[in-house]
């Protein structure tokens, strides 16, 4: 019943801007109980930009209307900036965002705002890691114009987004309003602000990916890390080796064609979002066996033989298969694949995967068994073990090929930190060509990586994994059949519990690092592994939790005094989530609507125990 009422309430708010009588009375009662509860700075609701800009000044909070002829003027000789300017003009004119809490501001009698002027210093800067994304935005009070200046087109796109979020509908009449006399100086704290999506365990349509990239750009996230393939399916149709997808995808309607990739990459550029592909290898490659059975070990075998120890599993989850580092054809396939990938994806970063190489899978292969026996007879325990040597051979035979295309390769942390199979000869993983992405061990593994001299991208599963907390997916699992009263622990999810937006927001990715080590932290990514997700739940799994990451990596999670600002962020995130929903992304709610309409009334004022 409560659910139905909320839905009704939302619907009526969207479509006729009024509330069902019962709800209106209820909130009126609460208002009378709380009339002494003042709403300081409620005008600040008028500048609800997410992520919050680094610096914003609005000394005399006044707003003006947006002229019916409002326009955006800027350089027309940069195709992606032109696409962004045209798109934002459409958004600004058509969005008609009505804040959940109406800002209490003075409407100035200055002229309506006529134009946003965009100035860009360097239109040649390409979208890549570390490109200057700073911008300044001034909305003048008297001259009826706004000026957005940026070093690059990509910074201009960030400023356009900020501008679009400053517009709302109010003032009694259906008019578009915007703050005037306002100055913003803004630039990101971390250059790499990403979202990883796994499209192998379950497939997502191109439209799902485009919608995700749009929503990323609203949040100033700039890296779409596309975990395209895994053991479960190989949906990418490669020009030089189409059989990988023909035999390895879930079917002809669950593939990405080269034209789809071109469209996604271009859409990313139009939104200032880099697209980094990941073809995970040598593990997580069971799906390659359809096209190339001879190069995949343990493909199609049951992942965890009955009665055996976890150490003797063939894969970390159902769906086994690893590339054989000793088979020459492995490298023929890899080279054709890498060549196709570098021509489809222009970004200078390329993700090679490299996680969870499992001994039991490789040792099912007779050639590998022979190699290991020979290796053992000529080496002893003080040297690299034979299995790690196999990984070194694989990396040493593929990474130089990737770097020959001037690409920097990202690997999951396992290639350095796995307890059994890792690269021990550092000449194989040169830090100048290699970035490691951490997912285990929280701040400790970040520290281990940077103290070894590698740049790091933080995706700690303790904080940033959006799939956690939904139980485990293997069937026939007796842990769910326990006597009543049994402690349910993490509910079967290896990385449970669910990662709340607050947990994500508050995580400091440079925790415990020296100043020198901090400089090797490029940024972070939230990750959605898709064993239990597809397009039906995509938006709500991602949003607004990815927004929490976005703000904490753009302008941080602290206020000017250095105090964590999660309390104040709650109200802003509510409002932002609501605007994202009206823009067409089904972000999940973080509070009852009642809390939003009764600011402060839902807060905790004591340490929760
Ligand atoms: C923004 O303004 C500051 C100070 O006025 C200036 O130093 C900076 O270069 C400007 N940034 C951009 C992107 O124009
Ligand atoms: C090789 O030696 C390691 C210990 O160094 C041992 O665990 C492994 O079983 C040996 N493998 C073979 C194939 O002999
Ligand atoms: C192990 O091998 C290294 C190098 O081959 C050698 O120096 C060392 O003496 C060997 N140790 C043992 C215990 O055999
Ligand atoms: C890596 O490959 C290069 C070139 O083939 C070779 O010279 C080097 O010894 C290899 N390194 C290792 C650790 O295998
Ligand atoms: C790699 O970069 C170098 C130096 O910038 C350039 O000369 C070379 O042509 C590039 N190679 C490729 C394959 O892009
Ligand atoms: C379910 O698991 C039990 C062991 O816990 C096993 O005996 C049984 O065969 C399994 N059933 C199926 C259908 O896999």
TrEMBL record:
Keyword hit for Ligase: no
GO biological process per UniProt: carbohydrate metabolic process; glycosaminoglycan metabolic process
Residue ranges occupied by any Glycoside hydrolase family 20 catalytic domain in the UniProt entry: 190-556
Domain Beta-hexosaminidase eukaryotic type N-terminal positions: 49-166
Lineage top rank: taxon: Eukaryota
Active site, UniProt feature: 356
Keyword match Plastid: no
UniProt GO MF annotations: beta-N-acetylhexosaminidase activity
UniProt family annotation: Belongs to the glycosyl hydrolase 20 family.
Protein name as catalogued: Beta-hexosaminidase
């Amino acid at each position: 019943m409560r659910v139905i009422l909320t839905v009704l309430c939302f619907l009526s708010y969207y479509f006729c801007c009024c509330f069902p009588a019962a709800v209106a009375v209820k909130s009126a009662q609460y208002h009378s109980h709380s009339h002494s509860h003042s709403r300081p700075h409620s005008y600040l609701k008028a500048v609800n930009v997410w992520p919050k800009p680094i610096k914003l000044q609005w000394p005399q909070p006044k707003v003006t209307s947006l002229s019916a002829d409002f326009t955006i003027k800027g350089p027309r000789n940069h195709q992606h900036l032109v696409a962004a300017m045209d798109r934002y003009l459409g958004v600004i004119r058509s969005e008609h965002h009505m804040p959940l809490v109406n800002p209490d501001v003075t409407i100035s009698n200055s002229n309506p705002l006529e134009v946003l002027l965009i100035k860009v210093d360097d239109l040649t800067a390409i979208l890549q890691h570390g490109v200057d994304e700073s911008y300044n935005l001034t909305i003048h009070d008297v001259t009826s114009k706004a000026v957005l200046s940026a070093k690059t087109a990509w910074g201009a796109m960030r400023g356009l987004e900020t501008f679009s979020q400053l517009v709302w509908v109010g003032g009694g009449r259906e008019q578009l309003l915007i703050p005037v006399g306002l100055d913003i100086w803004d630039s990101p704290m971390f250059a790499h602000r990403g979202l990883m999506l796994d499209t192998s365990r379950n497939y997502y349509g191109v439209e799902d990916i485009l919608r995700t990239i749009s929503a990323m750009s609203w949040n100033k996230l700039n890296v779409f890390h596309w975990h395209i393939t895994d053991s479960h399916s190989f949906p990418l149709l490669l020009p030089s080796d189409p059989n990988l997808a023909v035999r390895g995808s879930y079917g002809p309607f669950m593939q990405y064609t080269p034209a789809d990739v071109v469209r996604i990459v271009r859409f990313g550029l139009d939104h200032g979002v880099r697209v980094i592909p990941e073809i995970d290898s040598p593990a997580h490659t069971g799906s390659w066996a359809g096209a190339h059975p001879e190069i995949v070990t343990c493909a199609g075998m049951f992942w965890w033989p009955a009665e055996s120890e976890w150490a003797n599993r063939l894969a970390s989850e159902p769906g086994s298969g690893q590339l054989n580092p000793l088979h020459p054809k492995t490298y023929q396939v890899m080279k054709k694949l890498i060549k196709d990938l570098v021509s489809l994806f222009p970004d200078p970063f390329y993700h090679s995967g490299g996680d969870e190489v499992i001994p039991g899978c490789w040792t099912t292969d007779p050639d590998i068994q022979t190699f290991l026996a020979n290796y053992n007879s000529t080496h002893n325990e003080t040297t690299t073990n034979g299995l790690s040597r196999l990984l070194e051979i694989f990396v040493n035979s593929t990474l130089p090929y990737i770097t020959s295309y001037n690409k920097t390769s990202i690997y999951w942390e396992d290639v350095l930190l796995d307890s059994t199979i890792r690269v021990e000869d550092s000449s194989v993983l040169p830090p100048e060509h290699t970035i490691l992405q951490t997912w285990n061990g929280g701040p400790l593994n970040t520290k281990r990586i940077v103290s070894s001299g590698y740049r790091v991208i933080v995706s700690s599963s303790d904080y940033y994994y959006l799939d956690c907390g939904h139980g485990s997916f293997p069937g026939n699992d007796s842990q769910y059949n326990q006597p009543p009263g049994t402690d349910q622990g993490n509910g079967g999810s290896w990385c449970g519990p669910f990662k709340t937006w607050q947990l994500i927001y508050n995580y400091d990715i440079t925790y415990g690092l020296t100043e020198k080590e901090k400089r090797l932290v490029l940024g972070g990514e939230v990750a959605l592994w898709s064993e239990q997700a597809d397009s039906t739940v995509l938006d709500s799994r991602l949003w607004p939790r990815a927004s929490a990451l976005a703000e904490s990596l753009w302008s941080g999670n602290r206020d000017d005094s250095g105090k964590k600002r999660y309390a104040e962020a709650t109200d802003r995130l509510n409002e932002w989530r609501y605007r994202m929903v009206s823009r067409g992304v089904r972000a999940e709610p973080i509070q009852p609507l009642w809390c939003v309409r009764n600011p402060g009334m839902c807060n905790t004022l004591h340490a929760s125990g």
